[in-house]
Write a structure and sequence with these properties.
The chain is an alpha/beta fold and 307 residues long. The protein contains 10 helices and 14 strands. The protein folds into 2 domains: 201 residues, P-loop containing nucleotide triphosphate hydrolases (Rossmann fold); 76 residues, Alpha-Beta Plaits (2-Layer Sandwich). The strands form 3 sheets. Strands 6-7-8-3-9-10 form a 6-stranded mixed beta sheet, with helices on both faces. The longest helix has 16 residues.
């Protein structure tokens, strides 16, 4: 089955800032795909390129088989999109903006929008300008989902939502994927991503440093913490693929794929080092370690995992 989204060697600069640096990845249909990274990592740039709101300096972006630089209107007509700060007509009521938007889509949009608005507990008679940030987010979500798009692109979609609605919305993303549609989710809420994502990609300063199925990343990654006995002690050679290595004074922290724990214990014993602390990290632990290592000087990063 052809990927619904495909980035091929995509680079985008803004002046001296390299927003995306030779980024390549594919997203399969029926997937909840999460893009993670700190502010300025390139997440929003990637979304804008997907939707044809911007063009790459080099490389290509294809969405549903269409080149986003050449067919932006065709792509946007088929995609549901919720921006971090969704632009809405302030003078319209919630019901009016649903009616207005329904004119751009086939029949059935209005009924679906009304059902979503009711589910999100939004008063249809309220003017958009009177809504809180959370209520505006709910309206934007309802508008983006009402035409049941094959690809739903969400940039920080749960910002401003109360915990219950946030949980219900995220659970609905799983339902969307199970119906064969695809969700592209950019979020700072790592615990939310961990609850729903099938595949996780991590961008750090425009570089794609990790892309893998979430269950595989968590199952195969181990956190190792070792306290060195003195400043002269040399850290052990880690028996596995190191995703991140961060020093904290005498303590050293590694994130390691496919760690040979028994071999590590032998290495530490033979080197007169204390026994390491070994545990299974969650997604937030892995991401934070990678972010911390990337901020260290002279630490080039490359893609460390593929789905």
């Amino acid at each position: 089955m052809a990927p619904i989204v495909q980035f091929q060697n995509v680079t985008r600069r803004f002046g001296n800032t390299l927003a995306l640096d030779n980024v390549s990845f594919e997203i399969e249909p029926g997937t909840v795909f999460a893009l993670l990274g700190a502010n300025g990592a390139g997440k929003t740039t990637a979304i804008r390129l997907m939707l044809g709101l911007d063009s790459p300096d080099s490389g290509t972006v294809n969405v549903m088989g269409l080149d986003s630089a050449k067919k932006p209107l065709e792509i946007r007509s088929q995609v549901g999109y919720v921006a971090d700060r969704p632009p809405l007509y302030e003078w319209m009521t919630v019901d009016e903006i649903g009616w207005f938007t329904s004119g751009f889509y086939p029949s059935g949009f209005q009924a679906k929008y009304d059902a979503l608005r009711a589910r999100f507990d939004v008063d249809g008679s309220k003017a958009i300008r009177e809504l809180s940030k959370g209520m505006r987010a709910k309206v934007a979500l309802a508008l983006s989902m009402a035409h049941e798009p094959p690809l739903l692109v969400l940039d920080e979609p749960t910002s401003g939502l109360d915990p219950l609605v946030r949980r219900e919305f995220l659970e609905s993303m799983v339902d969307v994927a199970s119906a064969g549609r695809t969700v592209f989710l950019s979020s700072h809420q790592v615990n939310e991503v961990e609850r729903v994502a099938d595949v996780v990609a991590i961008l750090l300063n425009g570089k794609l440093v990790c892309i893998e199925r979430l269950e595989d990343l968590k199952r195969n990654t181990t956190e190792v913490v070792l306290t060195l006995p003195n400043v002269e002690a040399k850290p052990p050679q880690m028996p596995g693929q190191v995703l991140a290595h961060v020093p904290f004074g005498h303590d050293l922290v590694w994130m390691v794929r496919d760690l040979d724990a028994g071999r590590l214990q032998d290495i530490c014993r033979d080197s007169n080092l204390p026994s390491p602390l070994i545990r299974q990290p969650n997604l937030e632990d892995i991401l934070l370690a990678m972010l911390r290592e990337y901020r260290l000087p002279n630490r080039p990063q490359e893609v460390v995992a593929t789905n």
